[in-house]
Amino acid sequence: MRVLAAMSGGVDSAVAAARAVAAGHDVVGVHLALSQAPAALRSGSRGCCSREDAADARRAADVLDIPFYVWDFAARFSADVVDDFVAAYAAGQTPNPCLRCNEKIKFSALLDRALGLGFDAVCTGHYARLGRDDAGQPQLRRAVDPDKDQSYVLAVLTPAQLAHAMFPIGDTRKPDVRVEAAARGLRVAAKPDSHDICFIPSGDTRAFLAARLGARPGPVVDAVSGRELARHDGVHGFTVGQRKGLGVAAPAADGRPRYVLGIEPASGTVRVGPAAALDVGEITADRPVWSAGRPPAPRFRCVAQVRAHGGLAAAEVGTGSDRLTVRLDEPLRGVAPGQTVALYRPDPGDGDLVLGSATITATAGHGD
Amino acid sequence: MTDLTVPPPGPTYLDHAATTPMLEPAVTAMTAELRRTGNASSLHSAGRRARRVVEESRERIAEAVGARPSEVVLTTGGTESDNLAVKGMYWARRAADPRRTRVLVSATEHHAVLDAAAWLAAHEGAEVQVLDVDERGRVRPETLRAALADRSEQVALVSVMWANNEVGTVNPVRELAAIAHSAGVPLHSDAVQAVGVLPVDFAASGVDALTLTGHKLGGPYGAGALLLGRTVELTPLLHGGGQERDVRSGTLDTPAVVGLAVAVELAVADAPRRAAMLAGLRDDLIGKVLAAVPDATVNGDPGTEVIDGGPSRLPGNAHLSFPGCEGDSLLMLLDAHGVECSTGSACTAGVAQPSHVLLAMGADEAVARGSLRFSFGHTSTPADVEAVAAAIGTVVERARRAGRSTVSVGAGR
Predict the structure, then answer these.
(1) Containing structural domain, residue B30
(2) Which residue, A268, A273, A366, B361, is most buried by CB atoms nearer than 10 A?
């Protein structure tokens, strides 16, 4: 196959590309330039957007003896990922930009271009397993390394996107990926993992959003009494489940800590209350994507996951035309509109199978 | 001249404007010198021997380009020579008269000039004025005349390149230098693309400072010169041992200098024959590309006029735009066919920016992004043209499909 390997400059995508080469594919490496104004050197734990990262990717491609190019997707990234991120926070939601980047950039803009140029697949260093069922349909499963599993941020991909994806390192644990990188002579073998959001170099999401959205003051209100407890500079400074930085001086009547329970963007109201009120028993979500093209059944049992790591509960899913309801067996906390709920069929042997995902629009308490 | 050359780097190497293979006699002279010892500034016999090699090399370079030996300031190449000229002349002219803070540069200069001028604006109080170019990429004499019409006493220097590296357009340097001089202003010209192809005579051109570099004409990387008129004042960038008229300190790289001298001498001697050969290949390529891709357009000057005794376009340069294509895609697909060319301007991260040269010529951003530069050099043959002709049709078709993204699996939700 002709394979386009997306190379961030990190160890995972370098080993993924190396494995594609070793498998006998005709591989070309591409680094996506996503920042409008890339820094010369990498700083801290953000590892995909500096010119040093581009150089690391180029060096790895040179070691693999494959052609390598840098493609400028900065404008697309800014419009589809960064603007979306800012708009979601402004609307009181909690977005996941990595998921959006996979959906809109790597397996949309990049994949489209790759297919147009005659490639058969896009290869990345994501930790997820991709196989085929008996009918030849792609099946996305959790990675072997539970700490690194990225199937959640890939659960937004359609069958057509998965059909042209390649995740060569999903069957390997991270420490072994590093060992393999060193054995293959890749200098990025010991490069630190990247964390945080790649387009917020300071790591200060609140300041990043404040700089783009400005001050949009509103009240912090006690969900029980309806009393205004404090004023805030904008709903973008809050996410559901947040405890710190509420700016509330007076302790709650019961003496327990308060958490953000909900955000009403229209009025700019942030509702706070006790931890117990965070419990979510039912999730409504829209814009479902089914990894097999359709839901397994109109109603089915599965495991729901509401964030990249953790946030798991067994659930029963009911599907409608363009929305679904997820009734959780056990309550989950920190579930916010805008997040993605990914649905899995447990499979301890081959790895949990991704059934699909949808965007959370509303939540209800446990037993409501 | 193929008997003088080492093998070309790729199957179809059409990026000679980026760098061109070394001429074999230059390799021989340079490698012989690498085995010898001697600091050209030393007084003992090893130093004397090295100094003799350096000074003979300086004389050979001077002779080839119409300069006096004392006007050859040896540097590490184009970027250093441009920085030395722009910053050094600015500082010296402003020191002599503090009113002189205006810097006039053409819009299509290499970044070694543009960014040096921008740095002077950011850090040294310079007022940088960009000289517009016409739709062919040329600075018209009336543009410079107008820029010097008032406040000419405040101008530190003018910098206009001899021939543009991207689209190949040749500027009327002799006339521009005369205009600058009539206003009492010195002119620098970056001639890295011109020396060895076009007739470049430093004295006859009238320019005050001229940049040349080795690796564009068959010499080594990291070796070049700034030709600097004897009366031109210049403040150095590098301070130290006082080599090179006190303008450029640093122990001279004797092997590189001799390699540079041999290459300049050979390239200049061969320039008339080579220019005709390159123009023939260039015209053949343009004809065949346009036959395969009828809506492609040629950027720059047709090259049919005569400027300062040479053609009005670099004879080895073909610069074309392919509507509906991304230059990145074209580059990759041609590379897969063994054709090595360029989108014109590389930058550090390798991200292709829309060319500032094409934008200055009035092209819109989409056209600027969908452009390729093919540049021929001394190792080029008709087989190179045939390789492009055989591939370009399918490559453009494919790049258009990728550019329009008609295949859309990624619609998502």
Answers:
(1) 23-265
(2) B361
